Amino acid sequence: MNTNTVTSAVGFARPQFPFGRCTYLAVRPTFECGDRTASAMLDDYEEVQLQVGLPDHPTHCLEIYDDLADTINLALSIKADHPHLRLFYNGEEVQAPFDCWRSLALVFAESYDAWEVVEQVATGALKADDERVQDCISDCPLIGTAIGKVVA
């Protein structure tokens, strides 16, 4: 793990890295599978890798974090400082680009129907305190985080 870090806007160590050279960042939930690390599902992971893509090197893990929401927020924070970066979610269920919590929720909705409530709240079709929304949040707290970011 990189130990050259500073505190980020999301409240934990932000890696010091020449992000200007990167082409993309990827958020990858993982689990240990024997002697290798495998991509995991968004609701069943052991740790989360923040991966970097450089034009002349294969993708590699820059940092490892414990929480998926915090790592997504960190990636979005880094992108805000380096707008040329593309962001990717690189999980077991889907590998797709995103640029905000709302677009990430749309990606997740392709694999998990419950994630559709994020867009419904964002468009006003449902209120955040609707029973259906609360049931989805109860099943997957990350949906609540996404809703909080989308309606903020």
Tally of discrete structural domains: 2
| Class computed from helices, strands and strand pairing | alpha+beta
Distance between the termini: 33 Å
Low-pLDDT parts are 1-11
The shape is globular
Helix/strand order = EEEEEEHEEHHHH
Give the percentage of residues in beta strands. 25-35%
Number of helices: 5
Largest sheet features: 6 strands, mixed
Mean of residue pLDDT values: 90
Query: How many extended strands?
Result: 8
The helix fraction, in percent, is: 25-40%
Describe what you observe in this structure:
The chain folds into two domains: 1-99, no CATH class; 100-152, no CATH class. 34% of the residues lie in helices and 30% in strands. The chain has five helices and eight strands. Strands 3, 4, 5, 6, 7 and 8 form a six-stranded mixed beta sheet that branches. A hairpin with a 5-residue loop joins strand 1 (5-7) and strand 2. It starts with a strand and ends with a helix.
Question: Brief description of this entry?
Answer:
The protein is α+β, with helices and mostly antiparallel strands. 34% of the residues lie in helices and 30% in strands.
Summarize the SSE layout with pairings.
Blueprint: E1 5-7, E2 13-15, E3 24-33, E4 36-39, E5 47-54, E6 57-65, H1 68-81, E7 86-90, E8 95-98, H2 101-109, H3 116-123, H4 131-139, H5 141-151
Parallel strand pairs: 3-7
Antiparallel strand pairs: 1-2, 3-4, 3-5, 5-6, 7-8
Helix pairs in contact: 2-3, 3-5, 4-5
